[in-house]
Design brief:
Elements (H helix, E strand, L loop, with lengths): L2 H14 L8 E5 L5 H9 L4 E4 L2 H14 L4 E4 L8 H7 L2 E5 L2 H14 L4 E5 L16 H10 L4 E5 L8 H14 L4 E3 L6 H6 L4 E4 L1 H4 L6
Parallel strand pairs: 1-2, 1-8, 2-3, 3-4, 4-5, 5-6, 6-7
The protein binds pyridoxal-5'-phosphate.
Length: about 220
């Protein structure tokens, strides 16, 4: 696969679903990928990337941002409270807001620095004990809590259980988002982004299908 293959598959999926062309944003997930591969995708003109670790992203993205204008960087992995400030300075969007303590830290730092990344609340749609995210039944209350803190909540994010049909989870996330008047849906990865687009994804997070298998560090 290549970047071009993926963008063309996204266009077809938008069309098949009767969605507006360009309504789905492709987040190229560059975690653990060698810098040459990331640079190759930047040189093709793509600017929206996802990383799942603050430390790793902080090690490579300041240099890429110096060389390429208009980088749009998304944090898609868990965020420890003590890395909140660093994450807010580096990322344009955070997809893993999942607890009141973190929401309060983001609100406080946003006041201090005068800006805030776009935020997505991660929902643990499969109710898996080992997975981050708020439970579906608790999402409404957490959205309200974030709104009371004036946080720019753009939507919801999920990572479906590995062994279940993802469409059920995408549909559930879309339903919870609609109920809470949220337009953004961060869902769909290499193996299922077309199904996510059919169910309303606005942001798909695609790594290995663009860059190839991840090479362990
Ligand atoms: C790694 C990762 C992805 C991308 O996974 P691929 O299967 O390589 O497309 C998407 N979302 C999250 C949260 C990830 O950690």
């Amino acid at each position: 696969m290549s970047l071009q293959d993926i963008t063309s598959r996204i266009s077809h999926a938008e069309q098949d679903a009767g969605r507006q062309p360009g309504s789905v944003k492709l987040i190229a997930v560059s975690k653990v990928q060698p810098n040459e591969r990331v640079e190759g995708v930047l040189k093709q003109g793509h600017r929206c990337f996802g990383e799942n670790k603050v430390q790793e992203a902080a090690g490579k993205w300041p240099d890429f941002k110096d060389s390429f204008d208009g980088v749009d960087l998304h944090l898609i992995g868990p965020l420890q409270s003590n890395k909140t400030r660093q994450a807010m300075e580096l990322f344009d969007a955070i997809h893993s807001v999942d607890r009141p303590k973190l929401a309060k830290a983001i609100a406080r730092i946003a006041q201090e620095i005068g800006r805030c990344p776009d935020l997505f609340i991660q929902v643990n749609t499969g109710e898996e004990p080992q997975k981050a995210g708020v439970l579906p039944s608790e999402t409404g209350a957490f959205v309200a809590e974030c709104r009371a803190l004036d946080l720019p909540i753009k939507g919801l994010m999920c990572i479906p259980p590995a062994d279940e049909e993802p469409s059920l989870h995408f549909a559930l996330l879309a339903k919870i988002a609609k109920r809470n008047d949220l337009a953004g849906l961060s869902m769909g990865m290499s193996s299922d982004f077309e199904r996510a687009i059919a169910l309303g994804a606005t942001h798909v997070r695609v790594g290995s299908a663009i860059f190839g298998e991840r090479v362990p560090a």
